[in-house]
């Protein structure tokens, strides 16, 4: 192994590279759709951090002056002061804008942010009913947690390798890099949420920067920098590999995973083939970029709280906030944080013991405050009587079965309802929307002497595909096995299919054009067409083949058409509105034409089956659109909320749709339909 002659000498191009990382992240989180892959800036930060930290440790080890206490103390001086400042100033704004329950979650996220475990917290909170990510002011601290966890482990590993196997350092780090990268490929497919947040699947990005420092025969590469292709071409290629994903990637790109190699290797090329007179270095060293890069840490810390709290103020309180104002606030706070907090503390000559004690006291006080906010949010902010009245109303169904028990279980362990002792049965099959209808339909079928079986899996529409088609998708493979078993079961009277049909077609969250945008995008068939006519055609074809297969089987089939989505998290939106209004002043409606346009492709598919006697369609939109309010789809009827979040029906609404389904099933019996 040979060392590197790169040192900790200041490189303005790296500050420019930091700017190139932070700008897309900010624009992505600000909602500019053209920067759909702006999140790759975090990966650029990881590589830069891995390189710089490894360089510092390497030089300390080489000079036999490395100190763990000194290393961690310098990290604390660099990271903690600005973080303390952001958390301290964010708190009163959060108390003013947030609901008590959200304040409790905010307090908990404060604790996790200060203990650098935020990635674990946000990994656990990413489920169907989690708050919208753009309203979590500290969500971005997950990346700080990943870095700090890496900083905690990596110096120890490197110290041991240096002491006991110096010549094998590069090989050992390369081995860990490969394992981490392969784990991220596995995780992108099998556990995407954990894959995004945890260190084992992110470590390879930091190690990419570390490997530069210990790259064997580095002098050979440097000797060839006289060639234009190396001196100019490779760094410029690196820039392209960072910039291209910013516009080409989106939220549905499997990440981290193989696509992440592009910005990571691009950053490596820029750092490795540094030439201060080269075009790439000169571009990155222009003063505006260097200035932005110098305050990139403060910009990163401030951008998410500013945008998240601004989004809460706008979407929940109904006050429009121009994005220019948010940017002005962001830049002002970041600059103040840099000159008044970051730099003075970082270059302070105060004693190590005193400064460390001060950091410890501040951390302890802020953690205690976070726990208090989590456990007793009412001490900071109380609900009003109208809000408490709304919270007492049941949201989800009151049945004994839970989502965890009923989901993704297949037929053998399907949840039972209706007349559980009956031999004849109706199958309720679909995604999480089928679960919301289970208990209402169970009550309807109990009096009819029919058993109800629930087969459900979140984010999985009940589609059928021939063997060998789309076998890489777990939903398709699972549905194929379920349909095969159902078609062979002579006790099945009918099948009821329920799903967010149009959500899968378009993949994008529903936008009601009134300030309400759904929280999630579908990951179904992520490896196939991303959007546009290609995806519409693919999903429409899958739906049609599924329905034709059921018609051919002779099983009476009821399809519940797409349930209109409100866009807002309805209970939360109502709670915010009740801060300044009464029940009779609530209005949670949007134009019905928005829903009609979004559901047009699926309606066209259903129209092909309108004359088939064994096929019935239930239209929940008839209950919620153009009903109580003409030309509007509403989330509130007779003072009752129709939704439990931004897409799942409340229990009251689910009973209304269940009656529609029961009526369709009765039509089969009235027609004496016996096709099996």
Structural class label: alpha/beta
**Residues in helices, as a percent range:** 55-70%
Mean pLDDT: 88
Uncertain spans: 1-7, 126-131
Overall spatial form: globular
- In total, how many beta strands? 10
First CA to last CA: what distance?
74 Å
Number of helices: 28
Assembly category: single chain
The biggest sheet amounts to: 6 strands, mixed
Beta-strand content estimate: 5-15%
**CA-atom Rg in angstroms:** 28 Å
Widest sheet, order of strands = 1-3-2-4-5-7
Give a structural overview.
This protein is an alpha/beta fold and 676 residues long. Helices cover 58% and strands 6% of the residues. It contains 28 helices and ten strands. Strands 1-3-2-4-5-7 form a six-stranded mixed sheet, with helices on both faces. The longest helix is centred in the first third of the chain and has 30 residues, at 68-97. It starts with 11 loop residues before the first helix and ends in a 6-residue tail after the last helix. 44% of the residues are buried.
């Amino acid at each position: 192994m040979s060392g590197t002659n790169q040192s900790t000498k200041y490189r303005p191009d790296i500050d420019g590279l930091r700017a190139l990382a932070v700008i897309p992240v900010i624009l992505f989180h600000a909602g500019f759709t053209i920067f759909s892959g702006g999140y790759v800036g975090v990966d650029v930060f990881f590589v830069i951090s891995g390189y710089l930290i490894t360089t510092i440790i390497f030089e300390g080890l080489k000079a036999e002056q490395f100190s763990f206490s000194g290393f961690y103390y310098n990290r604390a001086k660099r990271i903690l002061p600005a973080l303390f400042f952001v958390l301290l100033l964010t708190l009163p704004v959060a108390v003013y804008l947030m609901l008590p329950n959200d304040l409790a979650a905010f307090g908990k996220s404060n604790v996790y942010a200060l203990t650098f475990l935020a990635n674990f917290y946000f990994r656990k909170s990413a489920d169907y009913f989690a708050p919208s990510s753009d309203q979590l002011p500290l969500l971005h601290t997950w990346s700080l947690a990943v870095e700090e966890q890496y900083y905690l482990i990596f110096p120890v590993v490197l110290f041991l390798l240096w002491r006991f196997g110096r010549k094998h350092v590069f090989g050992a780090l390369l081995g860990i890099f490969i394992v981490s990268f392969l784990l991220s490929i596995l995780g992108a497919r099998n556990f995407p949420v954990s894959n995004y947040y945890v260190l084992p699947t992110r470590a390879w990005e930091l190690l990419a920067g570390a490997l530069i420092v210990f790259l064997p025969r580095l002098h050979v590469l440097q000797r060839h920098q006289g060639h234009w292709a190396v001196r100019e071409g490779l760094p410029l290629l690196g820039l392209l590999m960072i910039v291209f994903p910013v516009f080409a990637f989106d939220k549905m790109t499997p990440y981290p995973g193989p696509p992440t190699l592009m910005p990571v290797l691009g950053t490596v090329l820029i750092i490795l083939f540094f030439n201060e007179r080269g075009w790439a270095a000169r571009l990155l060293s222009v003063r505006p970029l260097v200035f932005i890069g110098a305050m990139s840490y403060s910009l990163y810390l401030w951008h998410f709280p500013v945008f998240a709290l601004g989004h809460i103020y706008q979407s929940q309180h109904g006050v429009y906030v121009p994005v220019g104002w948010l940017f002005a606030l962001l830049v002002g706070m970041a600059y103040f944080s840099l000159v008044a907090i970051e730099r003075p503390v970082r270059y302070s000559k105060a004693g190590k013991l005193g400064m460390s004690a001060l950091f410890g006291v501040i951390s302890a006080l802020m953690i205690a405050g976070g726990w208090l906010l989590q456990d007793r949010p009412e001490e900071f902010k109380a609900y009003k009587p109208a809000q408490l009245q709304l919270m007492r109303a049941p949201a989800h169904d009151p049945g004994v079965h839970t989502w965890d028990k009923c989901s993704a279980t297949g037929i053998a362990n399907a949840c039972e309802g209706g007349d559980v002792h009956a031999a004849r049965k109706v199958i309720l099959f679909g995604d999480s929307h089928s679960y919301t209808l289970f208990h209402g339909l169970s009550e309807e079928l109990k009096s009819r002497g029919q058993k109800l079986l629930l087969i459900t899996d979140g984010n999985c529409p009940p589609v059928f595909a021939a063997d060998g088609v789309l076998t890489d998708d777990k939903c398709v493979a699972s549905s194929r096995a379920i349909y095969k078993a159902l078609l062979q079961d002579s006790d099945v009277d009918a099948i009821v299919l329920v799903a967010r049909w149009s959500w899968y077609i378009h993949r994008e969250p529903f936008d009601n054009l009134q300030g309400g945008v759904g929280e999630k995008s579908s990951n179904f068939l992520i490896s196939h067409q991303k959007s546009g006519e290609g995806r519409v055609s693919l999903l429409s074809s899958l739906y049609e083949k599924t329905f034709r297969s059921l018609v051919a089987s002779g099983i009476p089939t009821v399809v519940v058409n797409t349930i209109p989505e409100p866009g807002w998290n309805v209970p939360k939106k109502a709670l915010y509105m009740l801060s300044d209004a009464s029940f009779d002043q609530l209005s949670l409606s949007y134009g019905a034409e928005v829903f009609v346009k979004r559901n047009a492709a699926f309606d066209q598919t259903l129209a092909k089956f309108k004359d088939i006697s064994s096929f019935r369609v239930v239209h929940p939109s008839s209950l919620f659109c153009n009903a109580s309010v003409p030309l509007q789809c509403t989330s509130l009827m007779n003072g009752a909320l129709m939704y439990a979040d931004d897409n799942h029906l409340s229990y009251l609404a689910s009973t209304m749709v269940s009656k529609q389904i029961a009526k369709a099933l009765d039509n089969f019996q009235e027609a004496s339909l016996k096709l099996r």
